[in-house]
Amino acid sequence: MNAHEELELLSAFLDGELTDAERLRVDAHLPGCAECRATLDALRATLGDLGSLPRIEMDETSVSRFDTHLAVRRSRRPSTSRVWFSGAAAAAIIGLIASFAILRHPAFAPEGAPKALGAAAGSSGIETSDTDYTAASARAALGEYPSKDTFATGHYDALTAEDAQAESGAGTTFGATRQYAPAATGADARFRECATSVERGADLQTVRYLIARFNGERAFFLFYLAPAQNATRAEVWVLRPSDCFTLYFAQRKL
Amino acid sequence: MSEQDASDADLIGRHLAGEGRAFDEIVSRHRNRVYAIAFRICNRHEDALDVTQDVFVTAYRKLSSFRQEAQLTTWLHRLAVNAALDLARKRSRRDHRSLEAAEQLADDAPGPDEYAAASVRAAEVQRALARLSPDHRAVVVLHDLHDLDYAEVAAALGIPVGTVKSRLHRARLELARSLKHLEPIEGEPPSKVEKP
After folding, report:
1. Interface confidence (ipTM) of the complex
2. How many CB pairs (< 8 A) connect A and B?
3. Are B175 and A46 in contact (CB under 8 A)?
4. HSE (CB half, 13 Å, CA atoms) of A126?
5. How far apart are CA A50 and CA A59, in angstroms?
6. In this predicted model, what pLDDT tens digit does every residue of A44-91 receive, in sequence order?
7. What residues of B are in contact with residue A73 (Cβ under 8 Å)?
8. Which of A147, B7, B135, B156, by CA, is between 20 and 30 Å from B72?
Protein backbone atom coordinates (compact mmCIF):
# COMPACT_ATOMS: atom_id res chain seq x y z
CA MET A 1 0.00 0.00 0.00
CA ASN A 2 1.59 3.26 -1.04
CA ALA A 3 1.64 6.24 1.24
CA HIS A 4 -1.52 7.79 0.04
CA GLU A 5 -3.83 4.89 -0.19
CA GLU A 6 -4.46 5.64 3.46
CA LEU A 7 -6.26 8.78 2.25
CA GLU A 8 -8.88 6.61 0.57
CA LEU A 9 -9.50 4.74 3.81
CA LEU A 10 -10.23 7.75 5.96
CA SER A 11 -14.03 7.66 5.65
CA ALA A 12 -14.18 3.97 6.49
CA PHE A 13 -11.77 4.72 9.33
CA LEU A 14 -14.21 7.24 10.79
CA ASP A 15 -17.11 4.82 10.27
CA GLY A 16 -15.35 1.95 12.01
CA GLU A 17 -15.57 -0.14 8.86
CA LEU A 18 -11.88 -1.00 8.44
CA THR A 19 -10.30 -4.33 9.25
CA ASP A 20 -8.04 -4.33 12.28
CA ALA A 21 -4.96 -4.40 10.05
CA GLU A 22 -6.17 -1.43 7.99
CA ARG A 23 -7.05 0.54 11.08
CA LEU A 24 -3.63 0.00 12.62
CA ARG A 25 -2.00 1.12 9.38
CA VAL A 26 -4.01 4.38 9.35
CA ASP A 27 -3.32 4.99 13.05
CA ALA A 28 0.39 4.62 12.39
CA HIS A 29 0.26 6.84 9.30
CA LEU A 30 -1.65 9.82 10.69
CA PRO A 31 0.90 11.46 12.96
CA GLY A 32 3.27 11.86 10.02
CA CYS A 33 0.80 13.09 7.39
CA ALA A 34 -0.62 16.60 7.57
CA GLU A 35 -2.78 16.08 4.48
CA CYS A 36 -4.51 13.05 5.96
CA ARG A 37 -5.07 14.83 9.26
CA ALA A 38 -6.57 17.81 7.46
CA THR A 39 -8.78 15.51 5.40
CA LEU A 40 -9.92 13.69 8.51
CA ASP A 41 -10.84 17.01 10.12
CA ALA A 42 -12.74 18.02 7.01
CA LEU A 43 -14.65 14.71 6.99
CA ARG A 44 -15.54 15.10 10.64
CA ALA A 45 -16.77 18.64 10.04
CA THR A 46 -18.84 17.45 7.09
CA LEU A 47 -20.43 14.70 9.15
CA GLY A 48 -21.20 17.26 11.80
CA ASP A 49 -22.89 19.42 9.18
CA LEU A 50 -24.93 16.49 7.92
CA GLY A 51 -26.02 15.82 11.48
CA SER A 52 -27.46 19.30 11.67
CA LEU A 53 -29.99 18.67 8.92
CA PRO A 54 -33.56 18.61 10.16
CA ARG A 55 -35.35 15.30 10.44
CA ILE A 56 -37.78 14.78 7.58
CA GLU A 57 -41.35 13.92 8.44
CA MET A 58 -44.52 13.77 6.40
CA ASP A 59 -46.96 16.40 7.57
CA GLU A 60 -50.50 15.42 8.49
CA THR A 61 -52.11 16.62 5.28
CA SER A 62 -49.63 14.64 3.22
CA VAL A 63 -50.23 11.54 5.32
CA SER A 64 -53.98 11.78 4.90
CA ARG A 65 -53.73 12.38 1.16
CA PHE A 66 -51.20 9.59 0.88
CA ASP A 67 -53.36 7.02 2.67
CA THR A 68 -56.40 7.84 0.56
CA HIS A 69 -54.50 7.70 -2.68
CA LEU A 70 -52.82 4.44 -1.70
CA ALA A 71 -56.16 2.88 -0.86
CA VAL A 72 -57.49 3.91 -4.26
CA ARG A 73 -54.45 2.49 -6.06
CA ARG A 74 -54.44 -0.71 -4.04
CA SER A 75 -58.07 -1.34 -4.83
CA ARG A 76 -57.28 -1.30 -8.51
CA ARG A 77 -55.49 -4.59 -8.36
CA PRO A 78 -57.65 -7.53 -9.37
CA SER A 79 -58.09 -9.18 -6.08
CA THR A 80 -60.46 -11.62 -4.54
CA SER A 81 -59.34 -11.02 -1.01
CA ARG A 82 -61.39 -8.92 1.31
CA VAL A 83 -59.51 -5.80 2.22
CA TRP A 84 -60.38 -2.70 4.14
CA PHE A 85 -60.63 0.27 1.87
CA SER A 86 -58.39 2.51 3.90
CA GLY A 87 -56.23 2.42 6.97
CA ALA A 88 -58.54 4.31 9.27
CA ALA A 89 -58.65 2.88 12.75
CA ALA A 90 -61.95 1.38 13.77
CA ALA A 91 -62.40 4.12 16.33
CA ALA A 92 -61.96 6.80 13.69
CA ILE A 93 -64.53 5.18 11.42
CA ILE A 94 -67.00 4.91 14.26
CA GLY A 95 -66.38 8.54 15.11
CA LEU A 96 -67.00 9.60 11.54
CA ILE A 97 -70.14 7.56 11.27
CA ALA A 98 -71.43 9.12 14.42
CA SER A 99 -70.75 12.63 13.19
CA PHE A 100 -71.85 12.07 9.66
CA ALA A 101 -75.44 11.56 8.68
CA ILE A 102 -76.48 11.13 5.09
CA LEU A 103 -80.03 11.79 6.14
CA ARG A 104 -79.15 15.24 7.40
CA HIS A 105 -78.01 16.42 4.01
CA PRO A 106 -79.96 19.31 2.55
CA ALA A 107 -81.82 19.47 -0.72
CA PHE A 108 -80.68 17.46 -3.68
CA ALA A 109 -78.76 18.92 -6.61
CA PRO A 110 -80.86 20.13 -9.54
CA GLU A 111 -82.02 17.47 -11.93
CA GLY A 112 -81.07 17.39 -15.58
CA ALA A 113 -77.58 18.00 -16.83
CA PRO A 114 -74.85 16.18 -14.99
CA LYS A 115 -73.34 18.36 -12.39
CA ALA A 116 -69.77 19.26 -13.24
CA LEU A 117 -67.00 19.25 -10.75
CA GLY A 118 -66.22 22.72 -9.74
CA ALA A 119 -65.07 23.94 -6.40
CA ALA A 120 -65.30 20.67 -4.62
CA ALA A 121 -66.97 20.32 -1.28
CA GLY A 122 -64.30 21.56 1.02
CA SER A 123 -65.87 20.17 4.13
CA SER A 124 -66.36 16.53 4.81
CA GLY A 125 -69.90 16.62 3.54
CA ILE A 126 -71.21 14.22 0.97
CA GLU A 127 -73.72 15.56 -1.53
CA THR A 128 -76.79 13.65 -2.49
CA SER A 129 -78.57 13.92 -5.80
CA ASP A 130 -81.39 12.30 -7.68
CA THR A 131 -79.49 12.55 -10.94
CA ASP A 132 -79.28 9.26 -12.77
CA TYR A 133 -75.84 9.11 -14.33
CA THR A 134 -74.70 6.89 -17.13
CA ALA A 135 -71.11 6.06 -17.95
CA ALA A 136 -71.16 8.82 -20.56
CA SER A 137 -72.56 11.49 -18.29
CA ALA A 138 -70.22 10.51 -15.46
CA ARG A 139 -67.35 11.01 -17.85
CA ALA A 140 -68.80 14.31 -18.95
CA ALA A 141 -68.92 15.49 -15.35
CA LEU A 142 -65.29 14.52 -15.05
CA GLY A 143 -64.42 16.34 -18.24
CA GLU A 144 -65.34 19.68 -16.79
CA TYR A 145 -62.86 19.39 -14.01
CA PRO A 146 -60.82 22.58 -14.09
CA SER A 147 -57.16 21.90 -14.42
CA LYS A 148 -54.45 24.29 -13.51
CA ASP A 149 -53.01 24.19 -17.00
CA THR A 150 -54.81 24.00 -20.27
CA PHE A 151 -56.20 20.56 -20.96
CA ALA A 152 -53.33 18.51 -22.26
CA THR A 153 -55.48 16.19 -24.31
CA GLY A 154 -59.15 15.42 -24.72
CA HIS A 155 -58.42 11.80 -24.12
CA TYR A 156 -60.76 9.82 -21.95
CA ASP A 157 -59.83 6.44 -20.67
CA ALA A 158 -63.10 4.84 -19.78
CA LEU A 159 -62.58 1.50 -18.23
CA THR A 160 -65.16 -1.03 -17.41
CA ALA A 161 -64.25 -4.53 -16.40
CA GLU A 162 -64.48 -5.57 -20.06
CA ASP A 163 -62.26 -2.73 -21.19
CA ALA A 164 -59.77 -3.61 -18.51
CA GLN A 165 -59.39 -7.06 -19.97
CA ALA A 166 -58.55 -5.55 -23.31
CA GLU A 167 -56.32 -2.89 -21.83
CA SER A 168 -54.35 -5.13 -19.53
CA GLY A 169 -51.34 -4.88 -21.78
CA ALA A 170 -51.37 -1.10 -21.59
CA GLY A 171 -50.22 -0.86 -18.02
CA THR A 172 -53.49 0.38 -16.56
CA THR A 173 -55.39 -1.97 -14.35
CA PHE A 174 -58.82 -2.00 -12.94
CA GLY A 175 -59.91 -4.15 -10.10
CA ALA A 176 -63.57 -4.82 -10.50
CA THR A 177 -63.74 -7.37 -7.76
CA ARG A 178 -62.54 -5.55 -4.69
CA GLN A 179 -64.86 -6.57 -1.93
CA TYR A 180 -65.40 -4.42 1.08
CA ALA A 181 -65.94 -6.02 4.44
CA PRO A 182 -68.30 -3.73 6.28
CA ALA A 183 -68.72 -4.27 9.96
CA ALA A 184 -72.22 -2.88 10.16
CA THR A 185 -75.31 -4.73 9.06
CA GLY A 186 -78.14 -3.24 7.11
CA ALA A 187 -77.92 -1.62 3.68
CA ASP A 188 -77.89 1.99 4.88
CA ALA A 189 -75.21 1.36 7.48
CA ARG A 190 -73.03 -0.35 4.92
CA PHE A 191 -73.55 2.52 2.56
CA ARG A 192 -72.48 4.97 5.23
CA GLU A 193 -69.41 2.93 6.01
CA CYS A 194 -68.41 2.83 2.37
CA ALA A 195 -68.90 6.58 2.14
CA THR A 196 -67.08 7.40 5.32
CA SER A 197 -64.20 5.07 4.66
CA VAL A 198 -63.21 7.23 1.74
CA GLU A 199 -64.15 10.40 3.52
CA ARG A 200 -60.80 10.51 5.23
CA GLY A 201 -59.40 12.40 2.27
CA ALA A 202 -62.36 14.75 2.23
CA ASP A 203 -60.56 17.77 3.53
CA LEU A 204 -58.78 17.89 0.20
CA GLN A 205 -60.17 20.44 -2.20
CA THR A 206 -59.81 18.07 -5.05
CA VAL A 207 -62.21 15.39 -3.95
CA ARG A 208 -65.95 15.31 -4.37
CA TYR A 209 -68.26 12.75 -2.92
CA LEU A 210 -71.70 12.22 -4.26
CA ILE A 211 -74.56 9.84 -3.70
CA ALA A 212 -76.72 9.64 -6.77
CA ARG A 213 -77.81 6.99 -9.23
CA PHE A 214 -75.89 5.08 -11.83
CA ASN A 215 -77.92 3.35 -14.51
CA GLY A 216 -80.89 3.50 -12.21
CA GLU A 217 -79.28 2.07 -9.14
CA ARG A 218 -78.22 4.01 -6.11
CA ALA A 219 -74.45 4.49 -6.12
CA PHE A 220 -71.64 6.30 -4.45
CA PHE A 221 -69.45 8.52 -6.64
CA LEU A 222 -65.93 9.52 -5.80
CA PHE A 223 -64.40 12.25 -7.95
CA TYR A 224 -60.72 12.53 -7.34
CA LEU A 225 -57.68 14.36 -8.58
CA ALA A 226 -54.67 12.12 -8.77
CA PRO A 227 -51.35 13.86 -9.20
CA ALA A 228 -48.58 11.62 -10.46
CA GLN A 229 -45.10 11.99 -11.79
CA ASN A 230 -45.70 13.34 -15.24
CA ALA A 231 -49.40 14.00 -15.40
CA THR A 232 -52.43 14.69 -13.32
CA ARG A 233 -55.51 12.60 -13.78
CA ALA A 234 -59.04 13.32 -12.82
CA GLU A 235 -60.84 10.16 -11.91
CA VAL A 236 -64.30 9.04 -11.07
CA TRP A 237 -65.14 5.86 -9.23
CA VAL A 238 -68.66 4.60 -9.03
CA LEU A 239 -69.20 2.28 -6.13
CA ARG A 240 -72.10 0.06 -5.24
CA PRO A 241 -73.13 0.96 -1.74
CA SER A 242 -74.01 -2.48 -0.48
CA ASP A 243 -70.46 -3.72 -0.68
CA CYS A 244 -68.40 -0.93 -2.30
CA PHE A 245 -68.04 -3.03 -5.41
CA THR A 246 -66.66 -0.81 -8.16
CA LEU A 247 -69.30 -0.47 -10.86
CA TYR A 248 -67.44 1.88 -13.12
CA PHE A 249 -64.18 3.77 -13.29
CA ALA A 250 -62.98 6.46 -15.65
CA GLN A 251 -60.04 8.76 -15.76
CA ARG A 252 -58.99 11.71 -17.75
CA LYS A 253 -55.47 12.99 -18.18
CA LEU A 254 -55.10 16.65 -17.37
CA MET B 1 -50.46 -9.22 20.51
CA SER B 2 -50.65 -5.45 20.32
CA GLU B 3 -49.71 -3.74 17.09
CA GLN B 4 -46.63 -2.30 18.75
CA ASP B 5 -45.28 -5.75 19.58
CA ALA B 6 -45.91 -7.34 16.21
CA SER B 7 -42.73 -7.67 14.23
CA ASP B 8 -42.62 -6.90 10.52
CA ALA B 9 -42.49 -10.65 9.85
CA ASP B 10 -45.65 -11.16 11.93
CA LEU B 11 -47.44 -8.44 10.01
CA ILE B 12 -46.43 -9.90 6.68
CA GLY B 13 -47.71 -13.30 7.77
CA ARG B 14 -51.00 -11.82 8.87
CA HIS B 15 -51.35 -9.87 5.64
CA LEU B 16 -50.79 -12.98 3.58
CA ALA B 17 -53.38 -14.78 5.69
CA GLY B 18 -55.90 -12.17 4.55
CA GLU B 19 -55.98 -9.72 7.43
CA GLY B 20 -56.57 -6.35 5.82
CA ARG B 21 -55.30 -4.20 8.65
CA ALA B 22 -51.87 -5.79 8.76
CA PHE B 23 -50.70 -4.04 5.62
CA ASP B 24 -52.02 -0.73 6.87
CA GLU B 25 -49.85 -1.17 9.95
CA ILE B 26 -46.83 -1.89 7.75
CA VAL B 27 -47.49 1.31 5.83
CA SER B 28 -47.96 3.32 8.99
CA ARG B 29 -44.77 2.00 10.44
CA HIS B 30 -42.51 2.59 7.46
CA ARG B 31 -44.11 5.32 5.43
CA ASN B 32 -42.21 8.19 6.96
CA ARG B 33 -38.80 6.57 6.64
CA VAL B 34 -39.42 5.78 2.96
CA TYR B 35 -40.62 9.34 2.39
CA ALA B 36 -37.59 10.82 4.18
CA ILE B 37 -35.16 8.81 2.05
CA ALA B 38 -37.01 9.70 -1.12
CA PHE B 39 -37.15 13.37 -0.20
CA ARG B 40 -33.44 13.64 0.50
CA ILE B 41 -32.65 11.99 -2.81
CA CYS B 42 -35.21 13.81 -4.96
CA ASN B 43 -35.40 17.10 -3.08
CA ARG B 44 -38.98 17.60 -4.15
CA HIS B 45 -41.95 16.97 -1.91
CA GLU B 46 -44.30 15.81 -4.69
CA ASP B 47 -41.68 13.49 -6.15
CA ALA B 48 -41.01 12.02 -2.74
CA LEU B 49 -44.72 11.41 -2.24
CA ASP B 50 -44.96 9.70 -5.63
CA VAL B 51 -41.98 7.53 -4.80
CA THR B 52 -43.47 6.59 -1.45
CA GLN B 53 -46.75 5.67 -3.15
CA ASP B 54 -44.97 3.53 -5.70
CA VAL B 55 -42.95 1.76 -3.03
CA PHE B 56 -46.00 0.71 -1.05
CA VAL B 57 -48.04 -0.22 -4.10
CA THR B 58 -45.15 -2.45 -5.21
CA ALA B 59 -44.79 -3.84 -1.71
CA TYR B 60 -48.49 -4.63 -1.61
CA ARG B 61 -48.37 -6.45 -4.92
CA LYS B 62 -45.18 -8.34 -4.29
CA LEU B 63 -45.42 -9.12 -0.62
CA SER B 64 -46.51 -12.65 -1.33
CA SER B 65 -43.20 -13.36 -3.05
CA PHE B 66 -41.09 -11.58 -0.46
CA ARG B 67 -38.56 -13.92 1.11
CA GLN B 68 -39.33 -13.74 4.74
CA GLU B 69 -35.84 -14.30 6.00
CA ALA B 70 -34.78 -11.01 4.48
CA GLN B 71 -35.52 -7.81 6.34
CA LEU B 72 -38.59 -5.91 5.23
CA THR B 73 -36.80 -2.62 5.84
CA THR B 74 -33.90 -3.57 3.55
CA TRP B 75 -36.38 -4.35 0.80
CA LEU B 76 -38.28 -1.10 1.35
CA HIS B 77 -35.01 0.84 1.36
CA ARG B 78 -34.06 -0.74 -1.94
CA LEU B 79 -37.42 0.04 -3.51
CA ALA B 80 -37.29 3.60 -2.19
CA VAL B 81 -33.76 4.33 -3.31
CA ASN B 82 -34.23 2.81 -6.76
CA ALA B 83 -37.43 4.69 -7.41
CA ALA B 84 -36.00 7.94 -6.05
CA LEU B 85 -32.78 7.56 -8.05
CA ASP B 86 -34.72 6.87 -11.25
CA LEU B 87 -36.66 10.05 -10.75
CA ALA B 88 -33.67 12.12 -9.70
CA ARG B 89 -31.66 10.89 -12.69
CA LYS B 90 -34.49 11.64 -15.10
CA ARG B 91 -34.74 15.17 -13.84
CA SER B 92 -31.02 15.57 -13.82
CA ARG B 93 -30.72 14.38 -17.43
CA ARG B 94 -33.65 16.33 -18.72
CA ASP B 95 -33.14 19.62 -17.00
CA HIS B 96 -29.56 19.99 -16.02
CA ARG B 97 -26.42 20.24 -17.99
CA SER B 98 -24.63 22.55 -15.64
CA LEU B 99 -23.86 23.09 -12.02
CA GLU B 100 -25.89 26.32 -11.99
CA ALA B 101 -28.98 24.42 -13.11
CA ALA B 102 -28.46 21.88 -10.33
CA GLU B 103 -28.14 24.67 -7.82
CA GLN B 104 -31.30 26.21 -9.18
CA LEU B 105 -33.12 22.93 -8.65
CA ALA B 106 -31.90 22.74 -5.08
CA ASP B 107 -33.07 26.26 -4.38
CA ASP B 108 -36.43 25.79 -6.04
CA ALA B 109 -37.19 22.51 -4.35
CA PRO B 110 -40.42 23.18 -2.55
CA GLY B 111 -41.09 21.51 0.71
CA PRO B 112 -43.33 21.82 3.67
CA ASP B 113 -42.35 24.53 6.06
CA GLU B 114 -41.09 21.96 8.51
CA TYR B 115 -38.09 21.49 6.30
CA ALA B 116 -37.11 25.13 6.34
CA ALA B 117 -33.55 25.07 7.55
CA ALA B 118 -33.08 25.93 11.17
CA SER B 119 -30.04 27.90 10.23
CA VAL B 120 -28.25 29.39 7.28
CA ARG B 121 -25.68 26.66 7.62
CA ALA B 122 -28.28 23.87 7.41
CA ALA B 123 -29.57 25.50 4.21
CA GLU B 124 -26.06 25.43 2.77
CA VAL B 125 -25.70 21.79 3.73
CA GLN B 126 -29.01 20.96 2.04
CA ARG B 127 -27.89 22.69 -1.13
CA ALA B 128 -24.53 20.94 -1.09
CA LEU B 129 -26.27 17.60 -0.70
CA ALA B 130 -28.62 18.40 -3.57
CA ARG B 131 -25.65 19.21 -5.81
CA LEU B 132 -24.19 15.73 -5.48
CA SER B 133 -24.88 13.29 -8.26
CA PRO B 134 -27.83 11.01 -7.45
CA ASP B 135 -25.62 7.97 -6.79
CA HIS B 136 -23.42 9.91 -4.40
CA ARG B 137 -26.41 11.45 -2.73
CA ALA B 138 -27.95 8.01 -2.17
CA VAL B 139 -25.00 6.60 -0.18
CA VAL B 140 -24.77 9.72 1.98
CA VAL B 141 -28.52 9.71 2.63
CA LEU B 142 -28.61 6.05 3.59
CA HIS B 143 -25.42 5.93 5.65
CA ASP B 144 -25.06 9.36 7.16
CA LEU B 145 -28.68 10.40 7.47
CA HIS B 146 -30.37 7.06 8.08
CA ASP B 147 -27.64 5.20 9.95
CA LEU B 148 -27.43 2.16 7.73
CA ASP B 149 -24.06 0.46 7.91
CA TYR B 150 -21.98 -0.33 4.80
CA ALA B 151 -23.45 -3.82 4.43
CA GLU B 152 -27.01 -2.51 4.69
CA VAL B 153 -26.31 0.27 2.19
CA ALA B 154 -24.79 -2.31 -0.16
CA ALA B 155 -27.88 -4.52 0.17
CA ALA B 156 -30.23 -1.60 -0.40
CA LEU B 157 -28.38 -0.40 -3.50
CA GLY B 158 -27.43 -3.79 -4.89
CA ILE B 159 -23.73 -2.87 -5.08
CA PRO B 160 -20.63 -4.34 -3.44
CA VAL B 161 -19.52 -3.08 -0.06
CA GLY B 162 -16.24 -1.87 -1.61
CA THR B 163 -18.21 0.38 -3.94
CA VAL B 164 -20.17 1.80 -1.01
CA LYS B 165 -16.88 2.55 0.72
CA SER B 166 -15.29 4.43 -2.18
CA ARG B 167 -18.48 6.15 -3.29
CA LEU B 168 -19.24 7.40 0.21
CA HIS B 169 -15.70 8.70 0.60
CA ARG B 170 -15.81 10.60 -2.68
CA ALA B 171 -19.28 11.98 -1.91
CA ARG B 172 -18.14 13.27 1.46
CA LEU B 173 -15.03 14.87 -0.05
CA GLU B 174 -17.24 16.64 -2.57
CA LEU B 175 -19.46 17.87 0.23
CA ALA B 176 -16.43 18.95 2.22
CA ARG B 177 -15.28 21.07 -0.71
CA SER B 178 -18.74 22.59 -1.21
CA LEU B 179 -18.91 23.40 2.46
CA LYS B 180 -15.41 24.84 2.48
CA HIS B 181 -13.91 22.32 4.86
CA LEU B 182 -11.49 21.50 2.08
CA GLU B 183 -9.94 23.61 -0.62
CA PRO B 184 -11.47 23.07 -4.06
CA ILE B 185 -9.23 21.22 -6.43
CA GLU B 186 -7.59 23.55 -8.93
CA GLY B 187 -8.87 23.14 -12.45
CA GLU B 188 -11.33 20.37 -11.64
CA PRO B 189 -14.59 20.93 -13.49
CA PRO B 190 -17.82 20.50 -11.55
CA SER B 191 -18.50 16.90 -12.30
CA LYS B 192 -21.95 15.56 -13.10
CA VAL B 193 -20.53 12.27 -14.25
CA GLU B 194 -21.49 9.27 -12.15
CA LYS B 195 -18.41 8.32 -10.21
CA PRO B 196 -17.63 4.68 -9.34
Report:
1. 0.78
2. 124
3. yes
4. 28
5. 22
6. 999 999 988 888 888 888 888 888 778 777 665 433 222 222 333 333
7. 53, 57
8. B135
